[in-house]
Amino acid sequence: MQETQAHVEAKAFSVYYGAHEAVRRVNLAIPSGQVTAIIGPSGCGKSTFLRAVNRMNDLIPGCRASGELVFDGKNVYGGDVDTAVLRRRIGMVFQKPNPFPKSIYDNVAYGPRLHGNPSKGELDTIVEESLVEAALWDEVKDRLAKNALGLSGGQAQRLCLARALAVKPEMLLMDEPTSALDPKATARIEELIVQLRGRYTIAIVTHNMQQAARVSDMTAFFYEGDLVEFDATKDLFTCPKEKQTEDYITGRFG
Amino acid sequence: MRMGTRKLLDRSFTVGACFAVTLMTLFLLLVIVPIFGKGAGAYVFRGTVEYRRMMLGEFGRGDEARIRPEWEAVRQARRPIYEAMAAFERELPDLPAARRKELRPAFKVVREGLAALLGPEPGSALPVLPRKMYGQTRWEQAKEKAADILFEETWDYSGDESVKVLVPRQPLFEGTALAPVFPLLEKELEALMRPRLTFYPRFLTDRSVDAHFFGGIGPEVLGTVYLALGAMLVAVPLGIVAAIYFQEYAKEGPVLTFFRSCVNTLAGVPSVVFGLFGLAFFINTMRVSQGKSVLAGALTLALLVLPTVIRSSEEAIAAVPRAYKEGALALGAGQWRTILTVILPAALPGILTGIVISMGRAAGETAPIIFTAAVSVGQFVRLPEVLSQSTPALSWNLYNLCTEHEAVDEIRHVQYGMAATLVLIVLALNLTAILIRARVAKRLKG
Prior knowledge:
The complex is a heterodimer. Chain A is an alpha/beta fold. Chain A has helices at 46-53, 83-89, 104-115, 120-133, 137-140, 153-165, 183-196, 209-215, 233-238, 243-249, and strands at 6-17, 20-31, 35-39, 63-71, 74-75, 90-93, 171-175, 201-205, 218-223, 226-232.
């Protein structure tokens, strides 16, 4: 694993909501195969940045981007990018677990069915593998046909993770994936992130600094749309170079 | 505000609300109970031997081997009446002129009454109209007809208010050969008519005989079903597509606001205007058919319910959590794919509820189909004929039978039966909507 190789690289990248510049000329390289945490107070642009990577911001009217955001050597905001392909390669897990009101099986199979025409056998394999990878298989293997809305919050979030993994993405974006979960479920998700590290490039937005410290290799600190500091997690949390970072991680504001 | 005032306001609001709800319930019962009570009479009643004879003659139904002996027995029971009439006619010319003048019109009334009660006299030519071929088929009407013969209805104007008086006819005929007929009618009516509890479920599907004198309301029910289903066939795809467009594709702006207000205005247009529009546009301008047709009616009804379908579908789509849409898009689904596989399935129950309620509305509407589809007397319309044929329909024919029929009083049971059936159909549709809604709530809970 080449630690230095960037999977996603932002070059003077800005995102605007109308006239408001929510992410300001950010330069950031997310290393391949590692876990990168993005922290910062509410409204600092961290989620906006994350959602720019797979262009989920396109859904928001009046939202536009400038500068470059390169994924795998290609500008995500280039004219010839197929967002469907981009989003298949970059999976996403949201703040609130959002399983579809379908069976557990159909939830995981949704992506594979979208991008190909897998046989029943292939689909069964993909569903099992994905659920095993998301550490949910043992809990749901007997009730795959049951509605996913019957799952607990933590299970639902792992199902969403399995659903994202089922399309075999290269990268995972996690937008505060544990903020709606209890501590036990949070711990399981964190364990999973550690397990998935290396196989996928992971970018995780979190409000929880302990979480960032526990699971990530690199940490980026955003403040009011600016990238204040980006460094190896252990360095950033032990000896931050910027005053603002220090104030934030020591809890002086937040 | 002080505590006391607040409590007083609270209480008076509760009382007012309870009063309103009670009043509404009372009115509902006041309407529903008689409709169902009397409407049931079209399906369950005491049918006379004439009913069984009519069923055999007009519909080929019933056990001939049992009806024939019963009919023979009834004829035996009726024989004295006809014999008395014949004897009376023979002796009439020999009576004094004054008495003749007095008896002749009365005898005419009795004779016509008997024909209405018992059917045509034996040996007379078979009448052309089916309504004259049989006597009274329903026991309660037979009793009324018998009373018409036994008593003459006159008005007493001597007091301040005029009072209806029933004067027995028998004394007038005392001493003539006709006199024994009256006690016979009074005491032996059951033997003459043989009433028996009758179930007639096929009232719902039978054709009517001779302008609803006999038979059922099948053509009307079928017409209503055609019109309601046809309207849905047009309104549902259009409505859902429009709702998807409004919710998922259209950009907020003056154009969208304009279209939205158009839809809302359309929902407020009186239905009679839709009827006139349907006539002017679909029939006179577009010429979808030569004249009134099921097609033109269904198209008009579709326009009428379209706003409802659009609005309920829009609400259902808007109620689908954004997170579902984001989840699908984040997996690489295109917008259309997301709508088809995630949004519409999640919105389906809400959309269905709107559709079912609209269908109830389409089934009950009268004004739009008067101009475009409905005729008062009609046969069953076969499926290929819906493009060109007009049809009877419950809503319009109910009005027609209650106001324009030549014998409004004789077919009360058909009117009530029709009303009850229409109300039942609409209620059943609304109940379906409620059930669908309940199932959604369950499904969304997981």
